[in-house]
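name: query_chain
kind: protein
chains: 1
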Amino acid sequence: WGFQVQFVGVFALASFGMICFARALSEQRRSRSGLSWLAGAYVAAFAATFSMANGMLAGLVMVALAFASRATWRVTMTTCAVAAALIGSYSYGLELPTNRTPPADAILHHFGKIVPFTAIYIGNLLGPSVSACRPLGFCGIAILILAAVRSFLGRDATPARLAPFGIMLFCVGSGFVTAVGRFDFGMGQALAGRYLAGSTLFWAAALIYGWSVAADLRRPVLLEGAVVLFGAVLLFGALQAQRAVKAAIEDWSYKQAQSADMLLSGLTEGEALMNNHDEVGTIHREAAFLKEQHLSLYRGPDGELDRQPIAQAGRIVDRSACQGAINLAVGAPEIGPRGVDVSGYAWALHHLQLTGRIYLVDDRNTIVGFASPNGATKDRSAWHGVAVGTPGTRLEAFARLSGGRLCDLGGATVSTRLPPPP
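structure:
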């Protein structure tokens, strides 16, 4: 989903705002104006607010930082006014979903679910196990509380600590806001991959905060060692968590490639689309529009190659640059009129690499189909795709190699699918 980039964007903007705001407060402590840093912080808060709903918290966190560092009344009041203006302008005309628990009711009557959801959100770094994420998240919330006590009681305006504290506060606040709106869907929702942006950022800020605190101690070795050890444990746990979901990611990537090959070939009735997408009807309606407007997969280099000469896809080189073949080419009317199911194998030679799709062409050297690496098998040389043709049609496969080269993998004649044995 394209909107997922907003999660990275809103956290990046909020973090930049916290860094600018902390620097502005530090400058004012040194009897400097710091107005440019302050302006940068407000601009970042504005951008974060209108990137995603949790971006509204950026202004509120800056208010908290102003009070924690005992900023001047002028800065504090200005920050309060900016935060109120951002929240008010975002909320004006806002319509909440009617099929969710209202936020006030959620906080008052389901607080016991919201807090664990927030903890899992913060501990998402160790997903996909809820049992591992929940205690890590509660540990993170405890670290935030300790940092808040230290910041508010210590009047600390050092940017190296104030900025990470603000980032941690923003991340936990984002988890809380998300929990208010999503707890109805169960605790597993907190493990969504898009929430890793907030979880990863929180722990990065926590480690930076801890290291900065250690630098002010007379004997920093113990705390520095604890920070390094905890960081190593987090890194190891995160890598282990990624290993657990690697197979699922590869399977999803293969399904996406299947769908793209079908759409590029103009075959939209296939079982792959039914299995890979919830809203197949939407895909059917919008595929023509996307192609006309050169959007989505039609915007890439393969988007305009359907029914075009193979020469437009690249420079054809000698077959000595690759090895491969078409193993199977059978009629498959279930994926669309004149649909053909095609599979084979390919690998590059002479230090070249396979860099893209396999192109399937007819006897007129016209591209009539596309194929991608077959993620359903452990054989890395296998590929699978679809084409348009009829029994008796001769198909040829070309692999895209590095440097824009195309290599002929050989051909096969489309056959009729045999009926299953009785």
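note: The first strand starts at residue 315 and ends at 317.
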